[in-house]
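quick one before i forget lol
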Amino acid sequence: LYEDSGGSLWAGTDNFLYRYNQNEDRFTSFFDPLEEINSVSIIGIIEDNSKDLWLKSGSAIIKLNPVTKETFIYGDRFGIRPNSMGFFGGMYKNKQGQLYIGHDHGFYTFSPEELAVKTNLKIVITDLFINTLPVLPGISSPIQRPVEEISNLELRYNQNSIAFNFAAIDYRKPDATKYFTMLENYDNTWREAKAEKSSYYLNVTPGNYVYRIKVFNSDGTKGEKVITIRIYPPWWNTWLFRISAIIFIGVIFYRLIRWRLKQKFRLQLERSEKERQMAELKQKGTELEMQALRAQMNPHFIFNSLNSINWFIQQNNQAKASEYLTKFSKLVRLILQNSKASLIPLECELESLALYLDLEEMRFDYHFSYKISVPSDMDKSLLKVPPLIIQPYVENAIWHGLLHQDKKGQLEIVVIEEDDQLFFKITDNGIGRNQAAVLGSKSATKHKSMGMQITGERIAQLQRLGAKESSVKIYDLLLMDGSAGGTEVVIKIPVMYD
């Protein structure tokens, strides 16, 4: 019996080692009863300064770590002779920590720390093969140092068949040493190397890997070696190349589509050349109508805008007055520029429309908000539209729909191109046409009606001149409860280019 420094009670028996279990109030086997070591007879126990137990048997001295249960047997290879008298001899530890173990021919004495067994075996890579060819250090070689010193490998995509030869330095019982290898991310299974101390890995795909070798000798001493391996992909299989190729192909497709569209519209224009010549006089008449429309619309709007500027000045709101005046002057300049042509770029029409809406927002103290939506792939600089084609309907939505409700109004203008037709959808969440008719809005009614009438005639003129249908349709929107939810105006005109 032996009590260690932690108060645990140990018992050596003919069936190895037992420890007292305080909870069960009995001794239990320290190891699994089926383990081979349980057949050893223990005739002595002592603890060293490192809290390891030293066990004496008839033919060996056993070192035991009670925490990890690791054991190491010092037998005849270490000079321990069998004890012919069986239980003869005691065990003792002096003040310096040296152990004395009795024997029938004397005693053994040693310091446990000096007798510590080497816990790691050195593993050496003896050969490296890439694509079945041996690799030697050199400037153009994957390794710059001797093969036994390598800890990482960087290889090209075509250097993907790798083989290693290895060995562990253990001169006592080299045949009893066991080797296990694994290449992480390729084959995550430990495999024992039998007669040939080699590993072969064929057709390894580009990526990052970790090659591991583990070694265990007959005494339980182990060792491990790790080599990191990176195989680079070919240049055409890198993300940089893929992204560049996608961008290049996208640019080619974009140019082809642009060229095809230009060719298509050029052919359309050529086919309709005679029709345009025949309709030239009618177009001139349409231009006169446009000038008349501007003459009716612009003075009315200018008058209201100047009154708004005057009101901001009277309120001593210089910032608002300045902002309003800046946008107003820019809008006037755009209107004067656009009035010189029968067709203007869509982006110019939308720019002047946005300025007009900004001014109306400010003038009515942001009683409504607006949104203009255009597809990102639409070329607004090439598409042509008649000037002021949308503005009368937008003005009508503000004055008749949005300004006669308590809640804040929402106005949305959506531009869509489909089947050689250009659609303008003007949607508001105002009071609707029926309620507007009941209220009988008096503000600029005659002006706005005339503006919408002339604009309708201009769109009808486009219908007579173009190959596709042009139209204006108005829909009443309803809410879930059946009440008025606003109005939607859909303007459809042919797609036109220069």
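fyi Confidence is low (pLDDT under 50) at residues 441-448.
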